[in-house]
Design brief:
Blueprint lengths: L3 H10 L15 H13 L3 H5 L15 H11 L2 H14 L4 H4 L1 H6 L4 H10 L5 H29 L3 E6 L10 H8 L3 E2 L4 E2 L7 E4 L6 E8 L5 H14 L5 E8 L3 E3 L7 H7 L8 H11 L6 E6 L8 H13 L3 E8 L9 H9 L3 E5 L1 H12 L2
Helix pairs in contact: 2-4, 8-9, 9-11, 9-12, 9-16, 11-12, 11-16, 13-14
Pfam families: VWA_CoxE
InterPro entries: LolB, Uncharacterised_CoxE, VWF_A, vWFA_dom_sf
Protein name: VWFA domain-containing protein
């Protein structure tokens, strides 16, 4: 019987890993898994240049994308299937994963496929576009369900300094609890025994109307931020005290506010790619401001400006000087890992903008904190 650990190494390494099994061939399900991995990773040019060949044979593959998707769904756990699908559409740009009707009908929606749909929807005929919309709807629904919880928590109320009756983890007053229980410090263990925990109370305050203006760079590198901006705007839409605008831009500016309550429709209208004129978008956003001291302008971009960076800095400085909150986000997604022009970002920070990267939940908390003041 083949050692499962050695078999996994053979699958990971491909044909060069045959030594793991003493040269013995794979059999049964393992051989089928190896064929499915070869279909995808056997086309990796970088591996070929380095003399590492995953491809087991020299003949052309008879597998179609449809067959391959059917095989990996049968052969691998869900997490592996999602990784393989993601590599197919992002790493190897196998577009028929999201443009072939037969394939789309079988594929399991996930965030990687959502991004692929947004990048390739211009290639789709109306029939395929209807099927692709299923992916958009399902993934957006999952993101909405997750973010809605964060938004509700952020807008539940702000912490009051008086003690609260409701013992919730998010209301835990660590400083007061430690101060009150220091007498029970145990030197031998280095621990404080908590006899009486303390909690903040939360209060709901009257919320006056605030404008939240999201300006979203729709260049290809910002696809994650575009998706999360649409979902965030939808979650903020209709909240008491908040009026949300959403504007997408490249070298042109498109106001998508009328579709904010329908993030699926909004994302299907987004056109990824093209140049970038951030200053033009900032000027448009500044023109939407009605009460400067009750406005939050969120500029979501990698700050690689194709327009006039000096004009952008002047617009941001003007917004700040009139009392608006300006937030420059180099990323708005679950990882919040930014890749951006640090020089221009620093100039915007010097002009008074808050610059950084946030998850959607952190943005909701930022908005709630200022709206609740």
């Amino acid at each position: 019987m083949t050692d499962p650990t050695l078999e996994r190494w053979r699958l990971l390494l491909g044909e060069p890993g045959s030594v793991c099994l003493g040269g013995a061939p794979l059999g049964g399900p393992a051989a089928a898994r190896d064929a499915a991995l070869d279909w995808l990773y056997g086309r990796d040019e970088d591996l070929r240049r380095r003399g590492v060949r995953r491809q087991g044979g020299t003949g052309p593959s008879t597998l179609t994308t449809f067959d391959w998707l059917d095989d990996i769904t049968r052969l691998f756990p869900k997490e592996t299937v999602e990784r393989l699908q993601r590599d197919a559409v992002e790493r190897y740009e196998i577009h028929d994963v999201v443009t072939d009707p037969a394939v789309l009908a079988r594929v399991e929606p996930n965030p990687a496929l959502l991004k692929a749909v947004l990048r390739t929807k211009h290639l789709m005929n109306p029939q395929v576009l209807r099927l692709a919309r299923r992916i958009v709807e399902q993934v957006v629904r999952q993101l909405m369900d997750k973010l809605a919880t964060d938004v509700r928590s952020a807008f539940t109320g702000t912490k009051a300094r008086r003690a609260g009756r409701f013992r919730l983890a998010r209301n835990f007053d660590m400083v007061r609890t430690l101060r009150a229980n220091l007498g029970r410090y145990q030197p031998d263990t280095g621990k404080v025994v908590i006899e009486t925990p303390y909690f903040f109370s939360r209060t709901r305050r009257h919320l006056e109307q605030w404008q939240v203006i999201l300006l979203v760079d729709q260049s290809g590198s910002m696809v994650d931020s575009v998706i999360h901006s649409a979902v965030t705007a939808a979650c903020l839409w209709g909240l008491p005290g908040v009026r949300t605008h959403l504007v997408a831009f490249d070298t042109e500016v498109v106001d998508l506010t009328s579709d904010v309550d329908d993030p699926v429709e909004l994302l299907m209208k987004v056109q990824l790619g093209g140049g970038t004129d951030i200053a033009r978008a900032a000027a448009y956003g500044a023109g939407l401001v009605e009460q400067p001291r009750r406005s939050i302008v969120v500029l979501i971009s990698d700050f690689y400006e194709g327009g006039d960076p000096g004009r952008l800095v002047r617009i941001v400085r003007g917004l700040v000087e009139q009392g608006s909150k300006v937030l420059g986000l180099a990323a708005l997604d679950e990882q919040a890992n930014p890749d951006y022009d640090r020089g221009l970002a620093q100039r915007l920070a010097d002009a008074g903008a808050h610059v950084g990267a946030m998850t959607p939940g952190e943005l909701a908390s930022f908005v709630a904190e200022h709206v609740g003041r």
